[in-house]
């Protein structure tokens, strides 16, 4: 038996049950024999023609094969003389090809629907990543940009989504707490938690971030008041100058 047909027959026999029945897909046979789809189809036609297998194609979703080695008609094979001078072939008149009836015939009756469906790829393509970046929420007008960036970084670290629903919920909680949204998000970032509700806030957190009070020296840095009348001095300097005059 030629090697391609023999390999396909062995594959079918390995899949067959005790009654000789099996129903592997063409893809499975190709994977097991390492032959292409067309070669496998031709081999199945040959095996059917020589009585080695029977194929039942009444089911549109699969073909059931019955292995019948006892009905193999091997006497129909032909042997050719040695042609080693012109082509690679065994010496001694070994089997090198089949009769002319092996010429390819229309194989519509052998082709079948391949039931081995592959699962869709879950790989994130570049277009998907670009779409995700394009749909990122913009910074609301009432939120400090730096606070918004910190909050987005926190959500990313927590692997939490940033959607309109989440932002709407955060705004509702900030109203419930009596705080601007930007202060509410700033407290959220300071806590470093995945979520935050108004009921969880402490009194000092509800007050929002404390304003930074400028130092007294900042008011006079880079300025000189030499020769300035006392009544034109800033209040702090004027009071100090008046105290100095009284002490004198």
Give the strand order, joined by hyphens, for the main sheet.
Answer: 1-3-2
**Tally of helical segments:** 9
Q: How far is the first residue's CA from the last residue's CA? A: 128 Å
| Shape call | rod-shaped
Poorly predicted runs? 96-108
Can you say what the CATH homologous superfamily of the largest domain is?
Winged helix-like DNA-binding domain superfamily/Winged helix DNA-binding domain
- Portion of residues within helices: 25-40%
Largest sheet: 3 strands, antiparallel
Commentary on this structure:
- 40% of the residues lie in helices and 4% in strands.
- The chain is mainly alpha-helical and 248 residues long.
- The protein has three domains: 3-102, Winged helix-like DNA-binding domain superfamily/Winged helix DNA-binding domain (Arc Repressor Mutant, subunit A, Orthogonal Bundle), CATH 1.10.10.10; 126-206, no CATH class; 222-247, no CATH class.
């Amino acid at each position: 038996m030629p090697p391609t047909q023999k390999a396909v027959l062995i594959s079918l026999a390995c899949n067959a049950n005790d009654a000789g029945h099996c129903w592997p897909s063409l893809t499975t046979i190709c994977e097991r024999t390492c032959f292409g789809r067309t070669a496998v189809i031709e081999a199945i036609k040959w095996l059917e023609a020589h009585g080695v297998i029977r194929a039942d194609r009444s089911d549109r979703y699969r073909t059931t094969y019955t292995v019948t080695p006892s009905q193999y008609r091997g006497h129909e094979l032909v042997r050719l003389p040695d042609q080693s001078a012109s082509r690679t072939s065994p010496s001694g008149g070994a089997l090198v090809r089949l009769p002319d009836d092996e010429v390819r015939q229309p194989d519509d009756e052998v082709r079948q629907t391949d039931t081995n469906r592959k699962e869709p790829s879950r790989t994130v393509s570049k277009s998907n990543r670009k779409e995700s970046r394009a749909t990122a929420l913009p910074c609301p007008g009432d939120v400090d940009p730096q606070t918004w960036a910190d909050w987005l970084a926190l959500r990313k670290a927590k692997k939490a989504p940033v959607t309109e629903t989440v932002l709407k919920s955060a705004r509702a909680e900030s109203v419930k707490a009596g705080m601007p949204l930007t202060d509410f998000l700033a407290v959220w970032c300071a806590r470093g938690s995945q979520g935050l509700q108004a009921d969880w806030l402490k009194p000092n957190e509800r007050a929002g971030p404390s304003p930074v009070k400028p130092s007294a020296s900042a008011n006079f840095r880079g300025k000189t008041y030499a020769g300035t009348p006392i009544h034109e001095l800033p209040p702090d300097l004027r009071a100090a100058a008046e105290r100095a005059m009284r002490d004198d």
